[in-house]
# Entry
Amino acid sequence: MLVRFRGWLVDYLGHHETSIEASNLTVRDILAMLDKGDEEILKAVHRKGLFISVNGRVVYDLATEVSNNDLVTLFPIGSGG
# Structure
């Protein structure tokens, strides 16, 4: 799957996108994989300062499953999508 980043996430992660080859992942699993151990991404989700979309649809349930063919985008509120 392809994961794209917007706003402060680009600076936090150091790049605009990454590819993840895996199956049976949830949105929460992806966020945990991307976090640098400080849980900054998960904190942003809980503060409602971060939107997550899967294939162009905003998702709020972190248990949403994703597959290798999905496009996941993480973007802060106010980033323009």
